[in-house]
Amino acid sequence: MSPRTATVRRHHSAFAAVALLLAGAMPVSAAPLPYQADYDATYNGMAVTARRQLEPHPQGYRESLTLNSLLGSVSEQSLFSIDSDGALRPHNSSYQLSLFGVKRSEQQQFNWPQLTVDYRRGDKQRSVAIDSGCLDIATHRWALVADLRAGRAPLSYCVINRGKRKQYLYEVVGEEQLETPVGSLRTLHVARSRESNDSRGTELWLALDWQLLLVRLRQQEDNEEYLLDLAAATVANQTVAGLPAQLAIPASGDSAAHPQRDSTGNL
């Protein structure tokens, strides 16, 4: 393997890890609220900026993520809806990488009638069997924060990510107050549970007064560390600010802000 190829692979892994962890961290009410959040991040000292955004879409909702550094960029997108019974339904997700002139594209398409996910990367493709409750990265994080708000347990989710099926399990660490560029925020500290012999660690801090918006993220893997901190955000067109400010949740009857589908998938 050439030094250039090794460098591309190493930094691709870094981008993918940050994107994976940031993906899906979103505010929650009875239905998702539109938001935009900007983050400052570092990967082993390398500066990265990130923006995540949720907006209504004809298929339900679209959540997008962009990551940028001097080395390249990553963009991700997930389309999903919520059935009339409240069940999350991811439809498709995409991943685009541009790094050192190397470009990569990946697609995931959920086929709910057949309970499969069709994954494509370049000319490679495969089909993954799923259950009715399986999610993608974006919707699994939405499910996590919804379960946290409702006090449900266990916090365990079937996740299809980049053509692979995994089980994600989380635990609540406790409440913490963080000083951030937007002010002092009350947060819920959550960690992903792993095997006892697994040296990797993933921690998230979610804003209690702003619909569990992601405030801080930390991941350690082998000798590498990822750090991400909120720089600025809006939720439902309200600027996120420190205490004593908090989100005023829009009326639940605002159908334009909260599109839903019936059990057949129709809006």
Keywords for this entry:
15-stranded antiparallel β-sheet, globular, mainly beta
Topology readout:
Elements: H1 3-22, E1 35-43, E2 46-57, E3 60-69, E4 72-82, E5 88-99, E6 102-111, E7 116-121, E8 124-129, H2 137-150, E9 155-161, E10 164-180, E11 183-192, E12 201-207, E13 213-221, E14 224-235, E15 238-239
Antiparallel strand pairs: 1-2, 1-14, 2-3, 3-4, 4-5, 5-6, 6-7, 7-8, 9-10, 10-11, 11-12, 12-13, 13-14, 14-15
Instruction: Let me know the number of strands.
Output: 15
| pLDDT averaged residue by residue | 84
| Radius of gyration, CA atoms, in whole angstroms | 18 Å
The geometry reads as globular
Describe this structure in words.
The model is unreliable at 21-28 and 253-267 (pLDDT under 50). The protein has a 15-stranded antiparallel beta sheet that branches. It has 267 residues and is mostly beta strands. Helices cover 13% and strands 52% of the residues. The protein has one domain (3-239). It has 2 helices and 15 strands.
